[in-house]
C-alpha cells in the first residue's frame, strides 16, 4: 500500500504525538470525535489504541501494510472470546477488523451484540452506508475503508463527563496545532463530530481548516449541524455536529446527504 506523503511526513514530524488516528490514510473523509471512550481501568486498551498508535503506524508505513493484509478477528460461537486476539491482530489501519455491524452493550447483566462494536462506531458505519448509497448494510463493519478517524482530545474515560478536565484542556490545546498539519487538511470532507467543544475550548474551525462558516445552525429534532465551506480554491466541506454515539438516524441521513451531494458535485471518488 502506498501511504500519502503528507501522512509519512506527519509521522516523521510529530514523534511526540502518540495518537494519529485509525482507518485509511488515503480516504477522502475525515471524522474527528471528542475523545476515546476508554474506561479508567482499561490500561491495556489505552496502551494499545492510544500510546502505541504512532509506533504501529510507523511499522505499517515501513512494511507497506494494506488493509487486505490485516487478519480479521475470529470469535467463538458464543461471541464471548476472540480466538486470535494478539498484538499482531490489532492494527490502526483497520482496528478490530471482523466486528459485526451491531452494538455491543450490557443490558441487565447480559451482553448483547457480543461480536459488535461501540455505539459510536456503529453510527460511523450507518453514516458510511448512507454516504455510499447502500441499500443493504454489510454484516461486518467496513467504514475504515472509507474513513480516517481521529480525536480532538487524547484524554480518556468511559463517558465524557468522567474525563479529567485539566488533561482534556491540555490535550486539546496541543492537538489544535497538530490538526493543522497538511495530512489532516488534505481531506475534502471533514465531519467534526465534537459537539460544543469548539466553543468550550476556543477552537476556531475556520482557522484550522481554512473554511468559511455558512452562518446558520440546522436543527434535526434534538440534534444539530453546522456547515463550513472552503475559503480557498480547493473544494472542502466541513460538517460540525453532535458527537455521534447517541444521535438520531435522521441526523445521520441529513449529514450523509450533504456529503453525497458534495461528492457528486466535485466528482470525488470514494
Strands, helices and their partners?
Blueprint: H1 5-13, E1 22-23, E2 29-33, H2 43-51, H3 53-63, E3 105-107, E4 110-112, H4 119-132, E5 147-151, H5 165-178, H6 182-185, E6 189-193, H7 197-200, H8 205-209, E7 211-220, E8 223-230, E9 237-241, H9 249-265
Parallel strand pairs: 2-5, 2-6, 6-9
Antiparallel strand pairs: 1-5, 3-4, 7-8, 8-9
Helix pairs in contact: 4-9
Report on this model:
32% of the residues lie in helices and 17% in strands. The protein has helices at residues 5-13, 43-51, 53-63, 119-132, 165-178, 182-185, 197-200, 205-209, 249-265, and strands at residues 22-23, 29-33, 105-107, 110-112, 147-151, 189-193, 211-220, 223-230, 237-241. α4 (119-132) packs across α9. It is globular. With 270 residues, the chain is an alpha/beta fold.
Any descriptors?
270 residues
Summarize this structure briefly.
The chain is of the alpha/beta class. The protein is built from 9 helices and 9 strands.
Total helical segments: 9
Beta-strand percentage range: 15-25%
Rg, Cα atoms, Å? 18 Å
Mean pLDDT, to the nearest integer, reads: 93
**What low-confidence regions span 5 or more consecutive residues with pLDDT below 50?**
none
Number of strands: 9
Shape field: globular
